[in-house]
């Protein structure tokens, strides 16, 4: 094709895009009463992300409590049992793989959220009031199962009720609130650490039911997904939702009519392509295979880039860095979580300004540099027989920097980007695949990291047998982290 023909083809494509995607007047959400109401109610959906952050960091925070260690002492002294305890939340999420997309697609996003909240409330009560190790891990299983339902359905409903001009930043902010949940548990844990009995850890364990109680109470005031309603041939209800929350009740609004038309056409095309949607649809076209590869790779990279070392075995990392006092550990955890929350929200609000791909590239490149420095300072600390306070604290500086770069890309865009590339008929299943990939990666990574860290720490404390901690744990993760920017560049 000549340059002239190429320019003509590009001009025709641009004209077609302008015709199909007309330019609408910019809408400022806080100036419109109906949008203020919509996004105020949408906070109920964002609670799901904060709940996940709370649940995921709960065991890691509890491990720093002496009373928790004493209560489960005989059980957690067995490394295999400790690994099971830490992984049970992820195992519950993996088991839910077979039911979650079905519930969300056939009964609606709101039903899936309510069912998930009920299971999480039950799991929170079991763990908070447990009398033994078995009761605790059963509660963690229920928490993981219920969290998968709520965590998958909430962002689906959020992105499908948002005004199209605000969808990018809002869905990006959703996953950022994971850090809010982590901040709440670490802050409350810092305070309850002074309780000199089992309620020091039981209190923060029971508090994890509060977000689910809030969500199950206020979810009924939220509208159902217009896409779900159209898919169930409830077109009038879908149009009413769009007009009420996107145009203040004006059914003839240009944006509302365009959205309604686009939803109907998209769902009809999905129906024409395949009457019975299944997971096999991901393999039937080149585009869907590429989407599947992106979703799976996002799930793996988000957990195997080094962040899990800190979030899952925070106590061992602090001990290896020379920080042994309980209050110091809790203060460090709280400070890091506050920083993570600020960075993630700032990145999410600028996602449309900088673009998804540049943020991912900045994130992964910075993670590689920070992780390399973390590994180097860890090696220096070891080689001084753990006597160099400066290198011990330097590790924590680079851990914080690593977290900052991770937050720029993965904390907000992990869910938002996946939702944007998935068509409606594969959206629930695609999100479930990403979630199951994350949970499986976490489960495997936690077991491996636990034994490597325990083995390395034991050797570090034994001057005769001591070996290098980075050589056993950090180098493996560092290699995986190094190849991440290349993968992002190819996308």
From TrEMBL:
Bilayer-spanning residue ranges: 38-62, 82-104, 111-131, 137-158, 170-193, 199-222, 358-381, 393-419, 440-461, 473-490
One GO cellular component term: membrane
PROSITE patterns on file: MFS, SUGAR_TRANSPORT_1
PANTHER family: MFS HEXOSE TRANSPORTER (PTHR48022:SF66), PLASTIDIC GLUCOSE TRANSPORTER 4 (PTHR48022)
Any one GO MF annotation of this record: carbohydrate:proton symporter activity
Protein name: Lactose permease
Main subcellular location: membrane
Keywords: Membrane, Transmembrane, Transmembrane helix, Transport
Membrane association type: Multi-pass membrane protein
Family listed: Belongs to the major facilitator superfamily. Sugar transporter (TC 2.A.1.1) family.
Signal peptide: none
Pfam families: Sugar_tr
Organism whose genome encodes this protein: Cytospora mali
């Amino acid at each position: 094709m000549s340059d002239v023909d190429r320019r003509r083809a590009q001009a025709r494509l641009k004209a077609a895009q302008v015709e199909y995607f007309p330019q609408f007047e910019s809408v400022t959400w806080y100036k419109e009463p109906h949008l203020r109401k919509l996004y105020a109610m949408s906070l109920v959906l964002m609670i799901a992300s904060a709940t996940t952050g709370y649940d995921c960091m709960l065991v890691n925070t509890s491990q720093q409590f002496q009373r928790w260690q004493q209560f489960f002492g005989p059980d957690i002294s067995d490394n295999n049992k400790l690994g099971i305890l830490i992984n049970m939340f992820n195992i519950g999420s993996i088991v839910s793989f077979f039911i979650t997309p079905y519930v969300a697609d056939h009964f609606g996003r709101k039903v899936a959220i309510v069912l998930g909240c009920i299971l999480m409330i039950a799991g929170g009560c079991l763990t908070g009031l447990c009398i033994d190790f078995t009761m605790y891990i059963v509660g963690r299983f229920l928490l993981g199962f219920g969290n998968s339902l709520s965590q998958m359905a909430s962002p689906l409903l959020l992105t499908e009720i948002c005004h199209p001009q605000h969808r990018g930043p809002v869905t990006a902010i959703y996953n950022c609130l994971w850090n809010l949940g982590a901040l709440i548990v670490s802050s409350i844990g810092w305070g309850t650490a002074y309780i000199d009995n089992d309620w020091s850890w039981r209190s923060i364990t029971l508090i994890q039911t509060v977000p689910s109680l809030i969500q199950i109470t206020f979810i009924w005031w939220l509208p159902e997904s217009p896409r779900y309603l159209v898919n169930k041939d409830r077109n009038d209800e879908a149009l009413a939702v769009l007009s009420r929350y996107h145009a203040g009740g004006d059914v003839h609004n240009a944006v509302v009519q365009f959205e309604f038309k686009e939803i109907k056409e998209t769902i009809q095309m999905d129906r024409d392509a395949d009457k019975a949607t299944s997971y096999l649809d991901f393999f039937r076209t080149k585009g869907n295979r590429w989407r599947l590869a992106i979703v799976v790779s996002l799930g793996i990279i988000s957990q195997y880039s080094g962040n899990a070392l800190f979030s899952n075995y925070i106590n061992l990392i602090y001990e290896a860095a020379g920080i042994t006092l309980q209050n110091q550990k809790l203060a460090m955890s709280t400070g890091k979580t506050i920083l993570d929350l600020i960075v993630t929200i700032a990145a999410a609000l600028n996602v449309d300004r900088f673009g998804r791909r540049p943020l991912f590239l900045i994130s992964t490149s910075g993670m590689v540099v920070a992780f390399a420095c973390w590994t180097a300072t860890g090696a220096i600390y070891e080689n001084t027989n753990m006597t160099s306070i400066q290198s011990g604290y330097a590790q924590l500086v680079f851990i914080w920097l690593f977290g900052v770069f991770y937050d720029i890309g993965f904390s907000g865009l992990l869910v938002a980007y996946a939702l944007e590339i998935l068509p409606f008929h594969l959206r629930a299943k695609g999100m479930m695949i990403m979630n199951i990939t994350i949970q499986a990666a976490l489960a495997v990574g936690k077991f491996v990291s636990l034994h490597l860290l325990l083995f390395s720490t034991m050797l570090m404390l034994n001057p005769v047998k001591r070996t290098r901690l980075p050589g056993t744990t950090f180098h493996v993760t560092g290699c995986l982290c190094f190849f991440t920017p290349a993968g992002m560049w190819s996308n």
